[in-house]
Amino acid sequence: MLTVSVAVFNPNPEIFNNFLRSLKTYTPEMTQLLIFDNGSDSKEFVDIVKKYFNDSTTDNKVKLKITHNNKNIGFGRAHNQNLSFANNKFFAVLNDDIEFFENWASPMIKILDENQKVAQVGPKKNVFNTLKGDKIGQWEDTEEPEYCEAVCFIMQTSLAKKYHLFDEIYQYGYFEDMDLSLRLRKDGYSIRNADINWQHHRGTTTIRMIAENFDLPGYYILNEYNFKKRWNAYVMKGRFGRTIVIKRAGDLEDVFLLTPVIEALREKEPDSVILLMTKTPESVQGCHDIDGYAGYNNPVPCDVLFDLDYSYEKDFRKHIVDAYSEITNVITRKKSGTLYIEKNDMEYVDNLLKDIHLPVALDFSDAPDGKRWKRQNYVELGRKIKQAGFSIITVGKTSEQTADYLDADLSLINVLSYQQTALTIAKSKLFIGTDGLLAHFAQSTRTPSIILYGCTLPEYVADISLSSLFPIVSPVACKGCRHRYAAGTIVACPRNFACMEVIKPDDVFEAFKEITARLNIAP
């Protein structure tokens, strides 16, 4: 009924003797014992084996096979070799440094017999059985272990052969048992345990191998990398999908426009883990479809890396979201980003704006050449809007120092987080700014917005399907020069960015009056 597989390497005579004695005493189900010798220096351990299991004894029902190898091929490969000789219904993997104090196999076999979807059964105590926590491999008091530590478990021989037992990518030891259990569980099998009385003299094999100058720390690192590369999604979030890394340095607004792509990717692969590698994670703070962040250019074990740096910059003649979608192979539902907000931010902003009548938000953020509208233009425009009976809120983050003075009803420049700024925009009657992060916030919240465009054009960077978007595009003939280059990250302008200069405050104010009238927004 039961085949027992043991791999040995210079076993401790006393511990090995106790193991075999207890194995013989408490394993009446065993009819085959397979021992693989991983190149032990001495064969004296064979005498201990023959003391308990001797084929010449007529009353010995256990068929013994010892395979001697001239070098150490590792734990997993040794048991795989033994599996090829297994001829019973059940197959047990045991360490040579354990000891039983009662019948241990029958309760495990009973569980396997009662439920064909149970793939492995191991001891409930004195083992590692969970992958939760910072350290891979810990013990948890549970009836549903995440894996069976390979010091002691039983499974059906046919299933062990179907899954080829241990993957030999894991050299010598470490992680091969976790990998086997996860492969089984990914395919719908479960893992169980039995509360048996036994003991594991942990670490004795490791001590022997280190004494033989095996670089176990090095193999541990290698095996851990291979394990995480395959199972990082499970280690991080308990999922059996892929680990996907999306890399995008970019400006804040470029990273914010990843959200429709990330949402589409999550819908396509709900069981995967999505990590964002970026220099500006603050623009997508709170996005629940992102499972974590990776340091920019730091190595991360993953199944796939979507490198979106230069995805848009290599050909500006397509929408930035389309450029992202093409590389990630997803179909997005929109071309505007998604804002993720917290309740406490909502309460904070509500309290700030509670006494502001007809607020209009003006963007005082820093902006690169080709998108920058002079601060004095905003000041002049703001004064006109105030004279028309509206309240002015200034928002954004800037390093600019200016003597220009606008008597804003509420100045929030360099005061709010990005999410709080977006909420302020959302609660305003109108937003006015240039192509940038705050303009995308206005689109994501469907806030009526006047956006000024010079070197960029709205059809490539905005969601022009939105009725809330009112673009003002510079009238210069060379407008949209950003989209005429096939590579690069900067705009080389021979006119010193005259495109933004020709947009005057009076032009924007006239558009403001027309839009507020159309939307029936009046003092």
Structure overview:
By secondary structure, the protein is α/β, with parallel strands linked by helices. The chain has three domains: 210 residues, Spore Coat Polysaccharide Biosynthesis Protein SpsA, Chain A; 86 residues, Rossmann fold; 176 residues, Glycogen Phosphorylase B (Rossmann fold). Helix content is 34%, strand content 18%. It contains 18 helices and 19 strands. The strands form four sheets. Strands 3-2-1-4-7-6-8 form a seven-stranded mixed beta sheet, with helices on both faces. Strands 16-15-14-17-18-19 form a six-stranded parallel beta sheet, sandwiched between helices. The chain has a four-stranded parallel beta sheet with strand order 12-11-10-13. Helix 1 runs parallel beside helix 2. The model has no long low-confidence stretch (mean pLDDT 92).
